[in-house]
Amino acid sequence: MSDAVVTRQFDVPPGVVAVEDYEPFARERLSPEAYAYYSGGAADEITIGWNRAAFERLKLRPRVLADFARGGGTGLDLFGQHFEHPILMAPTAHHGLALPEAEIASVIGAGGARAGMVVSTEADVTLEEIAGVARHSAAPLWFQLYIQHDRGFTADLLRRAEAAGYGALVVTVDAPVHALRNREQRAGYRAPKLSQHANLRGLHTRHVAEAALGESLMFRGFLDVAARWEDIAWLRGLTRLPILLKGILAPEDAELALRHGADGLIVSNHGGRVLDTVPASLEALPGVVRQVAGRVPVLMDGGVRRGTDVLKALALGAAAVLVGRPCLYGLAVAGPAGVAHVLHLLRCELEIAMALTGCARLADISPGVIWRDEA
Ligand SMILES: Cc1cc2nc3c(=O)[nH]c(=O)nc-3n(C[C@H](O)[C@H](O)[C@H](O)COP(=O)(O)O)c2cc1C
Ligand SMILES: CCCCCCC(=O)C(=O)O
C-alpha cells in the first residue's frame, strides 16, 4: 500500500448487532488460510476457550435507582493521553489478509470509534503511513514492538515510531519463539517472508539450521538472540515514550517488568496463540494487579467480546482492555466501518452495563460490581 486512501464504500450486513455476529461473515469472506491464521491459536486451542469461559463464569451485581443526574462518561487518561473509552484495538499482524487497504482501513475505523489503536510491528503498511492517516483522527496510536535479533534494527524501529508520533511503545514479550499453530499448519497457512513485512525491510534473515530427527530444535541457537530482561532496560534508556510490556501473566514477571523500567503492563496470553493451556488473561489479572499495587496501569486482553466483559475486566483492576480478532473480522466484512462498528458496539454495551450496575464513571467500577455467591 503506497497511496494511503480508502475510497470504497463499505456496508455492515443486516442483522449484525453484536461483535460475535461478524465472525461467520468473516469466515465466508476470508480465504481458508487467512481465517485459520486469524481465528486460530496454539496447539489444541484450550486457552482460547478459557479466555471466554473466564468472562462467562463471572456474574454481575446489578444496582437500581442510582443517581446519574450529574452525568457520567467512559473517558480516561493513560500516560498523558486522553481516551474517550477504555477499549483499544489490539496489535494484530497482517491486516492485508482481510482487505487490500489493510491497516489504513483499520486506523480509519479505530478513529471513527474514537478508540486507541496499537499498530503491530508486523503490519502490512509502514508505521509511518498509518501514523500519517491517524494524524487526522482522534484516536491515540501506540506502536507494538517485537524486539528483533538485530538490536540496531530494533533501535531504528523505535526511533521511527517516535518520529512518526506514536504515543507509547508496547513491547510484546510472550512470543520469543514461533508458536505451535496446528490449525494454521492444517490449513496450509504460510506466514509472509521477512522481506514482505512493510516495517522490516532491510532486516536480514537469520538462518538457524533445521533440527534433524533426534536433535534439539530450540536449544541449538534458536533462542540465543531472543529478548531478555536486560533488553527492556536497554529500551528504557533509548526512549522517553512510555513502555508497556504485553504478555505478562505471572506476578513475578510483573515485578521484574517494573524493576526494568516498564511504565505499564498488558496482561495477555496473546489470545491463546502462543502457549496453550496457560490460564485465561482474566484469571491472571487479579494476581498481577495485586503485585503491581497501583504503581503502573495494568491493561488486559483476550476474549473480550461484550461490554459486560469490559466492565468485569475493569472491576478486577484493568485500566483498559484491548480487542483482537473481532476487529479483524469487522475489517474483513465491512472495512473501516466494520472496525468502527465493533469498537462502538463494545463501548455502547459498556455504557449500558455501567448504567445497570450503578457506575457513572470508570472510577466507580470496583470489585463490588461482581456478584459474590454466599459461602
Ligand atoms: C491474527 C492475530 C495476529 C496477532 N498479531 C499480533 C502481533 O503482531 N503482535 C502482538 O503483540 N500480538 C498479536 N496478536 C495478539 C493480540 O494482540 C491480542 O493479544 C489477542 O488477539 C487478544 O485476544 P482476542 O483476539 O481474543 O481479543 C495477534 C492476534 C491475532 C488474532
Ligand atoms: C515470533 C512470533 C511472531 C508472531 C507474529 C504475529 C503474531 O503475533 C501472531 O499472533 O500471529
Q: How does this structure look, described?
A:
- With 375 residues, this protein is of the alpha/beta class.
- The protein is built from twelve helices and ten strands.
- The protein has helices spanning 22-29, 32-39, 46-57, 102-112, 127-134, 151-163, 182-187, 229-238, 251-259, 281-292, 307-315, 325-356; strands at residues 76-78, 81-83, 87-89, 117-119, 141-145, 169-172, 243-248, 264-267, 298-301, 321-323.
- An eight-stranded parallel β-sheet has the order 3-10-9-8-7-6-5-4.
- α10 links the parallel β8 (264-267) and β9 (298-301).
- α1 (22-29) runs antiparallel to α12 and α9 (251-259) crosses α10 (281-292).
- The longest helix is centred in the C-terminal third of the chain and has 32 residues, at 325-356.
- The model has no long low-confidence stretch (mean pLDDT 95).
- The structure holds flavin mononucleotide (FMN) and the ligand CCCCCCC(=O)C(=O)O.
- Flavin mononucleotide (FMN) binds next to α2 and α12.
List key phrases describing it.
375 residues; alpha/beta; two-stranded antiparallel ribbon; 12 helices; 10% strand; binds flavin mononucleotide; binds the ligand CCCCCCC(=O)C(=O)O; Aldolase_TIM; flavoprotein; oxidoreductase
